[in-house]
Automatic annotation (TrEMBL):
Transmembrane segments: 7-31, 37-58, 65-85, 107-127, 200-220, 232-250, 256-277, 284-302, 308-327, 339-357, 388-405, 412-432, 452-475, 487-506
Keywords in alphabetical order: Membrane, Transmembrane, Transmembrane helix
UniProt xrefs under Pfam families: DUF6541 (PF20176)
UniProt-listed InterPro entries: DUF6541
UniProt keyword Ion transport present: no
Name of this chain's protein: DUF6541 family protein
Species annotation: Microbacterium plantarum
Length: 658
C-alpha cells in the first residue's frame, strides 16, 4: 500500500490544477492581493465546469488539451478586454491593499506577510494531516454509498471526454440529465495529467480543497469582516480546523465531495457580496469589478453544488440591509435610491432562488435527529450534527458572541450569519412541522449532516472574532505586566500562547472522534462494504481481459460496477440509481440464462455486454440478497464461463453468445 510520500507529485498536480487556471484568468483581469488568490479556485471550477458544458455542446472532448486551449483563449480575451474596455473601472477593484491594515496590536511591517505564512501553513498542516491519517492511504476509497457515483463519474469523464453537467445525470444513457460536474471535471483533469489511479486523484483534489482552498477562502472573508491584521489572519487559519462537522465529517458521510468542495469556496462568494454593497457607498462604478468577480466565481461554485450558492446568498442577506437604512436617511439622494433598489432586487432574487433551487424531496429521506432542547444545546455548544463537543469552541465562540453583541453595529454581519446558520440547523435537526422544515432545510435535503457543515461555516467568523478578542486582551495584559517590552513582541506572545492553547485543546475530543469515523468510512476498521482488496485487484486486471469496446455487468451496490473508475471499461449499471432501458432490464434479470435463452444472447450482442462481475451480495446498502437477479447463479449457469478470480471476486464471460 503506497504512503502519502509517494503521492507528493499527484498532490502538486492537484494544487496546480485547482489554483493555476483560475489564478491565470483573474491575474489577466487585473486582480491583485488576496482577492486574486481567493478567486483562483472558484474561477478554475468555473472554467472547468462551463468549459465542459460548451465542449459537450460542440461535441468536442473535455480533457487537458481542450481545457488548456480554452483557458489560454479565455485568459487572452480577458486581458484584451481589460486593456481595451475596462481600464476606467479597474481602479475600483476590491484588492486587499485597500483594506485597513494594522492596529495597535499589529505594528511591525512584516507582521501581515508572516501571519499569512503561519496562518495558512498551520491550517493546511492541521487539516491535511488529520485527513491523511483518517483516510489511511492515497489509494484508499470511501466505502460509502455516494462514492459509486463519484468514482465512476470521474472515470467516465476521463475516458470518454464528456464532462458536461447537462448530461452527466445518473451516468446511464437512459437517465441523462443535469448533475453539477465541476468537481468531477477537475479531478478528471488531474487524471489526464498523469495521475492514472482515480482514488489518488480524488483524494488529492479533495484534500487540497479542504486544507488549502478552505483556509484561503475563510481568511478572505474574515479579513473583509474584521480587517487585514496579523492576529485575524493567524486565528482564521487555526480556527478553520476546529469544527468536526466541516470539513472532516463530509469525508465520512455520503461521501459528499461536491458539497464539501462547494462549501470550501462559499466564504469567497459571501465576501464578494459584502464588497459589492460596500463599494456602492462610494459609487456604482466601483461595484462593476466586484460584479464581474461574482460572475466569474459564481458558475464554478454553482456547478460544484448549487445549494452552496443558495447558502451564500442567504448568509449574505445582511449586507443588503445598510443600503435600505441609508435610504431612510437620504431619501432624496439618487445614489441612495439606486443602491436601495439593488438591495431590494437582491433580497427578492435570493428569496426566489431559495424557494426554487431545491432538490425533489422524494430523494430526501432524513428525519429530525434531536428534540428541540437538544438542538439548542448543540447550537450553544458548537457541536452540530455529530454530537461531538469541541470544548475549546465553547469559550472562544462565547467570547466572540459577547464581543459582537457589545459592538453590534460593527459586527452585525457575523451575528447575522451565525443566527442564520443556527436557524437552519434547528430546522433540519429538530423541527417536526413538515412544512416549515421543508421550507427552511429542503434546499439541503433536510439532511442534518449537510446543514451541520453549513452551520460550522456560518459560525466560524464569530469563533475567529472570539479568538482574536482573547488574543488582544492578553496582549494588553502583557503590556501592563511588562511595559518596557517591545510593542511588536506583545501581540506575538499573545498569539503564540492563545493560538498554541487553541491548537492543543482543539485537536482533541471531537476532532479525534471525527478522524476515527473517517478511518471507518475508508475501511481502516477492516469493513469494506463497497470494494475489498480482492475485488479491486480483479478490477485492475480487467483491461488485460475485457476488450475496450465491451460492457461489464455488476451489482453497483457491491462495487462490481466500478469498472469505469478502475478498469476503463463501460458498466451497464454505473450507479445504484438510474433509469434502465428495456434491453438493460432484460440483462439485469436474465443475463445468466444466455445458454438457454437465445433472446438474451441477442441483447448481449446488441449491447456488447459479454462480461459480468460477481462480488457477492453484501454491499453498501447493507443487504444480503441479490439486487440483480440475472447474476445470482453465475457459477452454475450454462453458457457462462469463469474467466478470472481473485479470492471470492470472479469475472464471467457469456461464451454462449460469441
Amino acid at each position: 500500500m503506497p504512503s502519502w510520500v509517494d503521492a507528493i507529485l499527484p498532490f502538486l498536480i492537484a494544487v496546480a490544477v485547482v489554483i493555476g487556471p483560475g489564478l491565470l484568468v483573474v491575474s489577466a483581469a487585473g486582480a491583485r492581493g488576496w482577492l486574486r488568490w481567493s478567486l483562483a479556485a472558484p474561477v478554475t471550477f468555473s472554467v472547468a465546469g462551463v468549459g465542459a458544458v460548451l465542449l459537450g455542446l460542440l461535441r468536442l472532448p473535455f480533457g487537458p488539451i481542450s481545457f488548456a486551449v480554452g483557458l489560454a483563449t479565455l485568459a487572452a480575451i480577458v486581458w484584451l478586454s481589460r486593456r481595451l474596455i475596462m481600464s476606467r473601472v479597474t481602479s475600483g477593484l476590491p484588492t486587499t491593499e485597500r483594506t485597513r491594515v494594522g492596529t495597535e496590536h499589529d505594528l511591525a511591517p512584516w507582521a501581515v506577510p508572516v501571519a499569512l505564512i503561519v496562518g495558512l501553513g498551520l491550517s493546511a498542516a492541521l487539516i491535511s494531516s488529520r485527513l491523511m491519517r483518517g483516510i489511511g492511504s492515497p489509494t484508499a476509497i470511501a466505502q460509502l454509498f455516494d462514492n459509486v457515483f463519484h468514482l465512476n463519474a470521474i472515470g467516465l469523464i476521463h475516458t470518454t471526454g464528456n464532462g458536461s453537467s447537462l448530461s452527466l445525470g445518473n451516468l446511464t444513457e437512459a437517465s441523462r440529465g443535469f448533475y453539477p460536474a465541476a468537481f468531477h471535471d477537475v479531478v478528471a483533469l488531474v487524471m489526464g495529467l498523469g495521475v492514472d489511479d482515480v482514488s489518488i486523484a480524488l483524494n488529492a483534489v479533495s484534500i487540497v480543497m479542504a486544507s488549502v482552498v478552505w483556509p484561503v477562502s475563510i481568511l478572505f472573508l474574515a479579513t473583509r469582516l474584521f480587517g487585514a491584521r496579523a492576529d485575524i489572519i493567524v486565528m482564521s487559519g487555526i480556527c478553520a480546523s476546529l469544527f468536526a462537522a466541516f470539513p472532516y465529517r463530509l469525508f465520512s458521510f455520503g461521501v459528499l465531495y461536491p458539497f464539501m468542495s462547494g462549501l470550501t469556496m462559499l466564504p469567497v462568494l459571501v465576501a464578494l457580496v459584502m464588497e459589492f454593497f460596500r463599494a456602492g457607498r462610494a459609487s456604482f462604478r466601483r461595484q462593476i469589478p466586484v460584479a464581474v468577480a461574482v460572475i466569474a466565481a459564481g458558475p464554478g461554485i454553482a456547478l460544484t453544488h448549487p445549494s452552496v450558492v443558495v447558502a451564500a446568498l442567504v448568509l449574505a442577506l445582511v449586507f443588503a440591509v445598510p443600503p435600505l437604512l441609508r435610504l431612510r436617511r437620504e431619501r432624496q439622494s439618487v445614489p441612495a435610491r439606486s443602491q436601495a433598489a439593488i438591495a431590494i432586487a437582491y433580497i427578492i432574487g435570493t428569496a426566489a432562488v431559495f424557494l426554487i433551487v431545491r432538490p425533489p424531496l422524494s430523494t430526501a429521506p432524513w428525519d429530525p435527529i434531536q428534540d428541540p432542547r437538544a438542538a439548542v444545546g448543540s447550537i450553544a455548544l458548537m457541536s452540530p450534527g455529530t454530537g461531538l463537543i469541541g470544548w475549546v469552541l465553547i469559550p472562544v465562540a462565547a467570547t466572540g458572541l459577547v464581543h459582537a453583541i457589545r459592538h453590534a453595529r460593527q459586527h452585525a454581519a457575523a451575528l447575522a450569519m451565525a443566527a442564520t446558520g443556527s436557524v437552519l440547523y434547528f430546522a433540519s435537526a429538530a423541527m417536526w412541522n413538515p412544512f416549515l422544515r421543508d421550507l427552511l432545510a429542503g434546499v439541503w435535503y433536510r439532511d442534518t449532516e449537510r446543514v451541520s457543515a453549513l452551520f460550522a461555516v456560518a459560525c466560524l467568523p464569530l469563533v475567529i472574532l472570539g479568538a482574536t478578542t482573547i488574543t488582544r486582551a492578553l496582549a494588553t495584559g502583557v503590556g501592563r505586566l511588562a511595559p518596557a517590552s517591545s510593542a511588536w513582541l506583545r501581540p506575538v506572545i499573545a498569539l503564540v500562547l492563545v493560538g498554541g492553547l487553541i491548537i492543543v485543546m482543539g485537536q482533541r475530543g471531537a476532532l479525534t472522534q471525527a478522524e476515527s469515523w473517517l478511518g471507518q468510512s475508508f475501511g481502516q476498521a477492516g469493513v469494506e462494504p463497497l470494494l475489498s482488496e480482492d475485488e479491486r485487484a480483479l478490477l485492475e486486471e480487467l483491461p488485460e481481459i475485457v476488450p475496450a469496446d465491451e460492457v461489464v455487468l455488476g451489482d453497483a451496490s457491491t462495487g462490481a460496477s466500478l469498472t469505469p473508475a478502475f478498469s476503463g471499461r463501460e458498466a451497464l449499471t454505473p450507479h445504484i440509481f438510474g433509469e434502465r432501458s428495456k434491453d438493460e432490464k432484460v440483462l439485469l434479470n436474465r443475463w445468466d440464462r444466455v445458454g438457454v435463452d437465445p433472446a438474451v444472447c441477442e441483447v448481449v450482442r446488441e449491447l456488447d455486454a459479454y462480461w459480468a462481475l460477481d462480488f457477492g451480495t453484501e454491499g453498501v446498502l447493507g443487504q444480503d440478497r441479490p439486487e440483480i437477479y440475472g447474476l445470482d447463479r453465475l457459477a452454475d449457469s450454462p453458457g457462462v464461463e469463469e474467466v478470472a478470480r481473485v479470492g471470492d471476486a470472479a469475472l464471467y464471460e457469456a461464451v454462449a453468445c460469441r
